[in-house]
Amino acid sequence: QLQFVESGGGLVQPGGSLRLSCAASGFTLDYYVIGWFRQAPGKEREGVSCISSSGSSTKYEDSVKGRFTISRDNAKSTVYLQMNSLKPEDTAVYYCAESVGVNLGMPAPKPNWGQGTQVTVSS
Length: 123
Description:
Elements: E1 4-7, E2 10-12, E3 18-24, E4 34-39, E5 46-51, E6 58-60, E7 68-73, E8 78-83, E9 92-98, E10 117-121
Parallel strand pairs: 2-10
Antiparallel strand pairs: 1-3, 3-8, 4-5, 4-9, 5-6, 7-8, 9-10
C-alpha cells in the first residue's frame, strides 16, 4: 500500500491561507494520480481536488474552485494544496491518497489513510 504524510495544517482566521503538503513515504509519486480529501466532524470524507501524474490535469470540488490550487513536484515526490480565502466551512482533517483517475472523491481501493492534517478556520 502507498503511504503518504500530510502536513501544513493549522489554525487560521477566515480569509487566511495555508499550504498543505502530501509527501510520498517510501516510493515516488511520478506515476500516480493524487487526490486531496477532507473530513469535517460528523460528515463523510469528500474529495476536494485531484491532479494527474504529470500535473497537466486538475479538478476541484465546486466550493473550493478559485480558492484552492493543487500542484505537484515529482522530483520531491510531493503534492501541494494551496488554500486561499479560507472559510469556516473548510475546517476539516485533510488527507491525500492515490485517486482512480482524475476524479474527485475516488480514492484507489483500500487506501492507506494517514493521520491527515487538521485545518481549522476560525476567528
